Amino acid sequence: MLGRAHENFDEIVDYIRSHLPGERYAIVHGDFKFDNLVSTSQVVPCPLTDTKGASQVLHPTEPRVIGILDWELSTIGHPLMDVIFTTSPFWNAHARTGAGGTVDPQTSPYLAENRPTSGMPDMDNLLDRYTQIVGFDPRTDGDGKDWEVAKIFNLLRGGTISHGIQARTISGQASSDFSHIYFENTRKSLDMAKEMVRTRKEAAADKARL
């Protein structure tokens, strides 16, 4: 039996529940990341196309996404769920390493020193563009509280998913060759969430004493 995901799991959940963000609603993809966007250079085997057996799956002349994949986690919810998940590799080092830890952390395109050569924009550039499109800045909602609580939620969610993968691995039902990585990721994610909760609680207590 695997047991609980973390000894401070309830504390993390209780903190999130008592600091929920303001009400906003959107279609939430649930797993919105580069892996689930159809890439400009991607071609796929297709018997119904040319004699080469491959089909261009993006717009042939314009650099724009025409396909978003894997909608099985989609729901109606707060847009911060997708925004914080998509930007997590910028603020969470554990999210930069790819499936099974296959990406060297030192070569991650998300690192500030690697962005100029990798073509990866800064997180604030992405969020400025997002703000321009949707009409609100997720970094400033709730005086910045919503953004920080969303980070904690994202870590809790990731740690909980990892814990489920651990359970499937132990029972022999894991579908990934990298499932053993999630034993470590569960602890990392939930430890980080716990530290963020404790830091915010201490800051609130200090403010109350002033």
Blueprint (SSEs and pairs):
Layout: H1 9-17, E1 26-28, E2 43-45, E3 54-56, E4 75-77, H2 80-86, H3 88-91, H4 115-118, H5 123-134, H6 145-170, H7 181-209
Antiparallel strand pairs: 1-4, 2-3
Helix pairs in contact: 1-6, 1-7, 2-6, 6-7
Task: Describe what this molecule looks like in 3D.
This protein has one domain. It contains seven helices and four strands, in the order H-E-E-E-E-H-H-H-H-H-H. The chain has a two-stranded antiparallel ribbon. Strands 2-3 form a two-stranded antiparallel ribbon. The chain is 43% helix and 6% strand. By secondary structure, it is mainly alpha-helical. It is globular, with a radius of gyration of 20 Å. It has helices at residues 9-17, 80-86, 88-91, 115-118, 123-134, 145-170, 181-209; strands at 26-28, 43-45, 54-56, 75-77. Helix 1 (9-17) packs antiparallel against helix 6, helix 1 crosses helix 7 (181-209) and helix 6 runs antiparallel to helix 7 (181-209).
Q: Short summary of the structure?
A:
The chain has 210 residues and is mainly alpha-helical. It has one domain. The strands form two sheets. It has a two-stranded antiparallel sheet.
- Domains counted in the coordinates: how many? 1
Main beta sheet: strand number and arrangement?
A: 2 strands, antiparallel
Helix content: 40-55%
Shape descriptor reads globular
SS class: mainly alpha
